[in-house]
Each structure stands twice: as C-alpha cells, then as structure tokens.
Structure to design on (406 residues):
DNA sequence: GTCTATAAACAGATAGAC
DNA sequence: GTCTATCTGTTTATAGAC
C-alpha cells in the first residue's frame, strides 16, 4: 500500500464522516461524499465496496470517539463528585469540537439498534462498579442515596442534550451562535454544580 | 368533502406519521406509507401532492404535540418547584405514549432548522417571563440563584434524553424493556427530586 | 375518489480504459 | 489507483381508465 493509497483512503473516510454525520445514512449521497473528497464516485467503491461498508467504517470510528472515554472515567477509582466534574468537562469539550455527533449517533442507533452491538464490542462496561461505588458513598454519608442509573442518566442527559436540541434552545431562549457557545461553556460548571448540590447531604 | 374523503386523509396522515417518525424523512418510502394505510401510492399524491407536503403536515402535527404543552406550563403563574414537577410528569408521560417522537423531531430539525420556524409560528414563547420569575424567587430566598436557561435546559434534558438514548441506556445498564419502562416511570419523581434538592437554599 | 401502468429522475454499483 | 461511461434497481410523481 503506497502513501497515496493511505491518503486517499483517509480523505474518503474524513469526507464520509462529514457528510454522514450531517445528513445521516439515508440522506447522504455517495456523489456528495466523492465531491467533498475531491475524487470520483467510483473510487469510493474501490476502497469501501458499498455505501453500507463505508458507513460502518465511519460509525465505528465515531462510536470509539464517543463512548470509551466516558466509560473509562465512569469506571476509574475516583470519588463520585470528581467523576461528575471530569465527565462534564471532557464530554462537553468533545461535543463542542464535534457538535453534530450526538444527534447523528443516536439517530442511527435508533434506526438500527444492531449497529451498536455490531460496531462496538467494547460496550462491556461493568455498570456494577458504578452501582457499588454510589451505594458505598451513600452508606458512608458522603452523598445522598440515589440509584446509579438515574444519577448517570441525569449527568449524561445534561451534557449531551443541549447539542441535540441546539436549534430549539437557541430559538426558545433567543441566543445567537456566540451566546450559545458561551452557554455551553457555562454548562461545564453548571452541571457539576447542580448535581453536587443535589447529592450533598444536609449538614 | 365526503366522510370517506376525510377518513382517507386522516388514515394517510396517521400512517405517514408512523412511518416518518420511525424512519425519518429520508428513510421513509411513499410505498411503505401507502401499504400501511392500506391504499394505493397514487392516493398519497392525490391528497398531499408531494412527499414534502405530506411530511410538512406530519411535522406540524408533531410539533404542536410536543411544544405548546410545555410552553404553556413554563409560562403559567405557579411556583418554580411546581413547574418542575408538572413538566416532568406531563412530558415523560407524553413521551411514554410516543417514544419515537423525540429523536425524530430533533433529527429533522437539525437536518433542516428552517422546518422549525416554518411549521411552528407559536414558537413565540416569552422566555423573559421565566427569567424574571426565577430571579424573583431567588431574590426572595425561595430558591438558589441560577440562570433560567440552565435550569430549563437541565429539566428538559433529563426528561427527554432517556428516550433519545434508550437503546444505549438499556445496553449500558443491562435493562430489558420492562426494566426500562420502570426506570422511566421512576424519573417522574427522580427529576423533580434532583432539581429541587439542587435549588433548595441551606437552612 | 381510487386504481393500474408508466414516465422521469436518481442513486448505488460495475465495466473497462488509462 | 483513478477516471468516464453505463447498467440496474429504486423512488417520486403523473397519466389516464374506471
């Protein structure tokens, strides 16, 4: 495989990711991806055979950008409050860099849930670790009792949803693009603040 | 317009909504909608001219199912804590009845943000009302100070996101369908509980 | 108002030259 | 490895009979 091959292949994948994440699988056109990559449509098929296989390549890449990081933080041996802060920070920053990823991933998964299992073997998160940590800290009076499922869902919801609902939020709250970016930046501290307040026992 | 006309038109809209919400605009096929409605494909065009216009009819209907209710609660003259409880309850219940609506609406809006403005004139929520209520209650020491934008975003995020991420959450937390329904039911009280804890001043 | 048949445009995929 | 040209199946939309 020559250098040029590698570059073309990489260029295609980059353009494919761009188009797929914006338009979705059904809305994306091979022609548009080729145009964006500055090459011919036939080359896409030369490198990736079918639209499906090209999509799978993109999707696998995206899944591995989104999930492993958060899973590793969730399972790391640090206090719950620190996990909340760390996840808010890294997740929001990642989505700031890739604002279209969230809606894309969840749309495609809901269109075909099998994609999740087929493209993401490392889904092997041991949620029991989180459960026991949270009940342990609750037993010690460090945090208020709460089901791990709800706490984690609350956390991820508040981080991810604003990117999914961006146009609605902007419209509803009268924000321009700059105000929205500022709003997102604020959430890095607002989310931990909110959750930690809700978890702190009365003194 | 005869009774039969009205019924056919309504049947088409019902099937269109079903197919569009599951597959999205790009993934939906006029043939599939016709099959679901038990009629011929040509009839779709007789009643709605184009796929686009049929979609607009569906989308307008869905937007008016999703937004007006929450907006009216947001603007109603009740205390913040009551608003939080009422919105959690009604929104989660509505999404339980229509679990595919959330991902559908946000996907289509993000594909084409113009759809939001064009199909939803009543978007005229006066967010200033919420802002002033929240700063008023904060000034009176009823709640802890927080920007209205963040509080409302937190609330809606926690209500809506679980439906968008359903397959991921089920996989991650090892829930079957029944457990997930139970989980959703619990959120009707978990969300208000979480937010109210975070908003209650120290005593 | 409802159907069958078909037009017209499109999109994914391949053949074959260079 | 990259291109042009083309095939094949699909999909929206319309024509026209009943």
């Amino acid at each position: 495989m020559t250098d040029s091959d590698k570059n073309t292949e990489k260029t295609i994948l980059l353009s494919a990711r761009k188009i797929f994440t914006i338009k979705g699988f059904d809305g994306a056109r091979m022609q548009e991806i080729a145009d964006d990559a500055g090459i011919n449509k036939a080359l896409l098929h030369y490198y990736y055979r079918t639209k499906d296989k090209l999509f799978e390549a993109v999707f696998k890449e995206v899944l591995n950008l989104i999930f492993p990081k958060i899973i590793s933080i969730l399972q790391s041996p640090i206090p719950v409050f620190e996990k909340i802060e760390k996840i808010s920070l890294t997740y929001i920053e990642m989505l700031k860099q890739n604002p279209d990823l969230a809606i894309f991933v969840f749309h495609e998964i809901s269109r075909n849930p099998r994609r999740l299992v087929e493209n993401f073997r490392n889904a092997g998160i041991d949620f029991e670790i989180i459960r026991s940590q949270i009940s342990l800290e609750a037993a010690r009076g460090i945090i208020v009792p709460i089901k791990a499922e709800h706490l984690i869902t609350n956390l991820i919801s508040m981080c991810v949803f604003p990117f999914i609902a961006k146009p609605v939020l902007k419209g509803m709250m009268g924000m321009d693009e700059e105000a929205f970016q500022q709003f997102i930046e604020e959430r890095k501290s607002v989310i931990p603040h909110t959750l930690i307040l809700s978890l702190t026992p009365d003194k």
About this structure: Chain A touches chain B through 56 residues (CB under 8 Å). The mean pLDDT of chain A is 95. The CA atoms of residues 143 and 199 of chain A lie 5 Å apart. Residues 1-49 of chain A form a domain with the Arc Repressor Mutant, subunit A fold (CATH 1.10.10.60).
